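Tutorial, part two.
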Amino acid sequence: MSTLVEDNPAKHRFEILVDDALAGFTAYVPRGEVLVFTHTEVDRGFQGKGVGGTLIRGTLDQLRARGTTVVPQCPFMSAFIDKHPEYADLVADLP
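Running the prediction step on this input gives:
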């Protein structure tokens, strides 16, 4: 199973492709240098396979490389960060 996480700025979301098929996304609202993440969705056919975690990890890794911080209003992203404290430094207050 090959995966690719990429930003789709036109739709304000990061998407995960699994074997070239759109498997899920995490949506954001830009607020200056901060991205407010509001919703994460994984297609039913890909649930329970770690796709959501791979999506969030890939998103946060890319944002760290850019120097961007996040406000995880989405419960899924928030729970992921709680379970993976190595990403806690990316969390910002709402501007």
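The two ends are 38 Å apart (CA to CA). In part three we will examine how such features are distributed along the chain.
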